[in-house]
Write a structure and sequence with these properties.
The protein has about 100 residues and is α+β, with helices and mostly antiparallel strands. It has one domain: Arc Repressor Mutant, subunit A (Orthogonal Bundle). It is about 40% helix and about 10% strand. The protein contains 3 helices and 3 strands; from the N terminus they run E-E-H-H-H-E. The chain has a 3-stranded mixed beta sheet with strand order 1-3-2. Helix 2 crosses helix 3 (about 65-85). The radius of gyration is 14 Å and the shape is elongated.
């Protein structure tokens, strides 16, 4: 990063998902395009869609603003939809690597 903008706030993430990967059946992983889903995006999906929490409550649990939470959920959903509809693998990573 070029040093401009705000410092990235530490996000509370419930579990380590960094060793998880999903791919379409019957296609070798090395033949697939990969989508990178970051751990904070997975946590946002877990809270919003799996736990069915309101955005403000989810944002509070992650230690971020509601607008940042909203952006994370939107980004994650778009990536997941792309992977499912276009037969791409999903790899979960920590953004700070």
């Amino acid at each position: 990063m070029n040093g401009l903008g705000r410092k990235r706030k530490k996000r509370n993430i419930n579990a380590d998902h960094s060793k998880v990967c999903f791919k379409p059946c019957g296609i070798r992983a090395n033949q697939l395009e990969h989508i990178i889903l970051y751990e904070d995006e997975v946590e946002a999906i877990r809270l919003a869609d799996f736990k069915s929490l309101y955005q403000q409550e989810s944002a509070d649990k992650m230690g971020i603003s509601r607008t940042t939470f909203s952006r994370l959920v939107e980004s994650a959903r778009k990536k997941i939809a792309d992977a499912l509809l276009n037969q791409k693998a999903i790899k979960i990573e920590n953004k700070e690597k």
